[in-house]
Amino acid sequence: MNGGGRGVVPEGMSALQSAEDVAAEVTEAAPRPSRRPWTVWSAWRRRWAERHPAAARALSVSVTVLAALLVVAALVMPNTVVRLGPAKFLRIPAEAVIGAAVLPALPRRPRVVVAALSGVLLGAMTVLNALDMGFNQYLGRNFNVVLDWSLFGDAESYLEDSLGRTETLAAVGGVIALVLLLFVLLALSVVRLGNLLARYPAAATRGTLVAGVAWITCSSLGLQVAGVPVASDRTANALKIQARRVSATLKDEAEFRKVARVDAYGNTPAGQLVPDLRGKDVVFTFIESYGRSAIEDPVMAPGVDRTLDIRTKALAKAGFHAKSGWLTSATYGGSSWLGHSTTMSGLWISNQQRYRTVMASDHLSLTEAFRKTGAFDTVGVMPGVQKGWPEQKWYGLDRVYNAFQLGYRGPKFSWSTMPDQYALQQYQERVHSKPVPAGKSRMSLLILTSSHQPWAPIPKMVDWDRLGDGSVFKGIEAAGNKAADVIADTTRSREEYGKSIQYSVTALTEWLERYGTKDTVLVFLGDHQPISRVSGNHASRDVPVSVVAKDPKLLDKIADWNWTDGLRPAHDAPVWKMSSFRDRFLKAYGSTPHPKHG
Question: Ubl conjugation among the record's keywords (predicted)?
Fold first, then answer.
């Protein structure tokens, strides 16, 4: 058999087999239909729409309406919780009118690209508005896109300490998913609306013209609904504000470097620094979130004021007397390190960039002034420090005890690693009771943390002789409130905050009453007000400050400050900026200015 012909089947192969092989070859050579998910989805959608036309139309209209509502809501969204309300969303956004005029005029591909990018930008502005809401609610200020990203790590740590790791991971994951979904939905919504306007150009033109005239009319006449202007350009204004904020931040960074190089006491010789405190036992103490609201708010004040009065009398009985005033903090609701560094540097350190600038400088801190004299052993007790703390060098502290160096074996109280009473007892045993090197006295810096939010659970005072390694607090912590319950309840947060301040003040003043000497000088103050949800949306940034001593001559030196006698400053007691305290303190106790100009 001749096998060279075209239709000849090779020996040993059936005609059926040959046909199957040929069909297979043809199938492999032919292009296969696309099975990409989007193509499959589009085909399925068309088939479903053909079978259910009425439902398809209703669904299409519903999706379009939801897309329009989402875009408009994002365009007019305010950036503070107090401004939220229905009237804020019943507005005509100028940005939507402009988009409706521009998008239909573009060719299809550029239109889709511009619409998608506009949706992403709108998503970013919505996230920034939400961040502004959160920062205003907790820190009393807007979010700074240049400086504040580093605070998210601290926020995550705070949530983990308050709610637990599992709950925190779930919350963080949920927020990330929600943000990504927002970006996708807004991009798809703007693309959908742009395509719809292009599909019906005549109707789109008429609608845009009507909306534009309505916006101009409302703007010109100042028409309002419930006090809110109907004509809105919220997003455009927000973009301008963000741009100005970024520009101001970058400008502030350069200007503050120059300010930090100027120091009224930068060249003061060691022998002329705090001569009137030589031989004294000086203790500076910050109480977390101890703000003016604790003393004057009608919910918190009764308990706190009663505690301050009781402790003033107890200290007087032990021979101690106090004078108290107000300082306006550089921070609010959090970022305690800004309050600490502002007090100690004499500079207004109101953001993270300024903080980094000062920490890297040789600007004299109040605590470093004591070390510079050579007459003081300088020690820090920092129960809130749980990692490396390079700031020790700038603060001029010879030794620092962090959360892991105080021997605590009890439970954490939410964010606070240990109760203030335990930290003070450890300070007494490890530092205050120990002899200082010959010819020296001691200056200490303590930062107490029990009054840190979320104020649940709160420690209770126990017998000082029973503190041991802190295990005594296990039952107290277990019986206390759960952080999640207090965080969600504003009234309880305010009540528990007041109780936490009572605890911290009691622990500190009992330590002084128990262990203070004729040479002890205690300066204690708050670092900032509590979050606005507790202190109120219009609360001041003032914090109380007190100087306590047995030696009457030491209080006489600050008589011209006109502070109130006792631990509770009067409502009309002098109010200074926190940044003025360093120079006033140095001057009051005999320091001589020798300016440094950079």
Answer: no
Q: Taking Cα atoms as reference points, which of 99, 240, 124, 236 lies closest to residue 186? A: 124
Rounded CA-CA distance 466/452 in Å is 24
Q: How far apart are the first and last CA of the chain?
A: 107
In order of 3, 305, 306, 317, 409, the CA distances from 321 in angstroms are 120, 17, 17, 9, 35
Tokens of 539: 């609360």
> What was the pLDDT predicted at 16?
37
Helix (H) or strand (E) holding 239: helix 234-260
Q: Which domains does the chain have, with CATH numbers?
A: 39-248 (no CATH), 273-551+565-597 (3.40.720.10)
The per-residue pLDDT for range 258-292, each reduced to its tens digit, is 888 899 998 999 999 999 999 999 999 999 999 99
Cβ within 8 Å of residue 206, ≥6 positions away = none
Which of 9-13, 74-78, 378-382, 387-391 tops mean pLDDT? 378-382
Lowest mean pLDDT of 7-16, 142-151, 176-185, 522-531, name the range.
Answer: 7-16
- Cα–Cα dist 195/65, whole Å: 14
Return the residue matching tokens 């521009």. 102
Please give the average per-residue pLDDT across 137-156, as a whole number.
Answer: 75
Which string of DSSP letters, residue by residue, matches 514-558? HH--TTEEEEEEESSPPPHHHH-TT---EEEEEEEES-HHHHHTT
Q: How far apart are CA 1 and CA 328, in angstroms?
A: 109
The pLDDT score that the predictor gives to residue 35 is 55
Which residue from 405, 337, 386, 384 is spatially nearest to 365, judged by alpha carbons?
337
DSSP, res 270: G
Q: If DSSP codes are grouped into helix, strand and coil, which group holds residue 216?
A: helix
Please state whether the predicted TM-score (pTM) of the whole model is above 0.70.
yes
**Does residue 246 or residue 424 have the better pLDDT?**
424
The rounded mean pLDDT for the chain is 86
Q: Which long-range contacts (CB under 8 A, 24 or more apart) does 405-408 make?
A: 406/381, 406/430, 407/469, 407/470, 408/383, 408/469, 408/470
* Six-digit token string for 52: 């259910």
Taking the C-alpha atoms of residue 506 and residue 399, their distance in angstroms, rounded to an integer, is: 26
Instruction: Please indicate whether residue 52 or residue 587 has the higher confidence score (pLDDT).
Output: 587
| Dihedral angle over CA of 155, 157, 162, 165, nearest 10 | 120
Does residue 562 come out as left (phi exceeding 0), alpha (psi in the -120 to 50 range) or beta? left
Q: What tens digit of pLDDT does each residue of 558-579 get? A: 999 999 999 999 999 999 999 9
> DSSP class of residue 587?
H
- The torsion angles phi and psi of 413, rounded to 5 degrees, stand at -110, 85
Cβ atoms of 79 and 163 closer than 8 Å: no
Q: Where are the beta strands (DSSP E) in 23-137?
A: 92-93
Tally Cβ neighbours within 10 Å of residue 371.
Answer: 19
Contacts of residue 365, Cβ cutoff 8 Å, sequence gap at least 6: 341, 344, 345, 394, 395, 396, 582
